[in-house]
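Q: Give me the 3D complex with NAP.
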Amino acid sequence: MRPHVTVNCAMTADGKIASKARKQLRISSPEDLERVKAMRASSDAILVGVGTVLADDPHLTVKGLPPEKNPLRVVLDSNGRTPQGARVLDARARTVIATSEECPATWPGAEVIRVGKGKVDLAALLDRLYAMGVRTLMVEGGGETIFSFFERGLVDRYSVFVGPLVVGGRGSPTPADGEGFAEDRIRRLRLVDHAVLGGGVLLTYEVIDG
Ligand SMILES: NC(=O)c1ccc[n+]([C@@H]2O[C@H](COP(=O)([O-])OP(=O)(O)OC[C@H]3O[C@@H](n4cnc5c(N)ncnc54)[C@H](OP(=O)(O)O)[C@@H]3O)[C@@H](O)[C@H]2O)c1
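A: Here is the predicted complex, encoded as structure tokens.
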């Protein structure tokens, strides 16, 4: 059994999720930030890749919630690159760092789940999280992580806020980077909701074929 997985991110009107220097951008409107806060608060766990930890150093918590009410934070980090002082390791919430089986790294205050040879095995990780009581998982990025979830057929819902900015740059991260799909493996989505939230639009999709 696996948790229900919602991928949530914010992209610019030209389909980028950060600047060409991979720096975090304020893409969400205040209304979207409120929605993301509520979505986080109602999720059992929030997951990002180590690329996001290194680029943005996020807390991944909900402001105002005590540690025991905050969702579990999960970082995909096959080789143990999460810095010891990363904000995701603070005492505001529980944290799991998922590494490969070979990775010896440990972090004070974080639980380590070692799954997969060389790279974190996402399906095995989701099984472990389910066994820990996680029923709803919010995947926040970045592009490598989101692509991997789509590639493994592990996404149930995809919500993307489209903000009124153009960033450009052929190397700027997008919601799904990775290797990309061959034409016959492209994922199909069904639009299930759309809403104007301040200056942008929230699109919500279900994944048709995993
Ligand atoms: N706008 C938004 O909503 C939003 C949200 C989040 C992030 N971002 C942006 O996204 C950018 C970071 O994205 P990113 O693509 O560079 O990094 P990322 O997706 O955050 O992290 C990718 C890294 O995670 C590790 N990983 C471990 N297991 C994995 C697996 N099974 N599949 C995929 N990755 C795995 C890999 O490093 P190892 O091989 O070392 O394990 C991989 O390089 C930043 O610029 C950030 O600002 C934007």
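A quick observation: The domain at 4-207 is CATH 3.40.430.10 (Dihydrofolate Reductase, subunit A).
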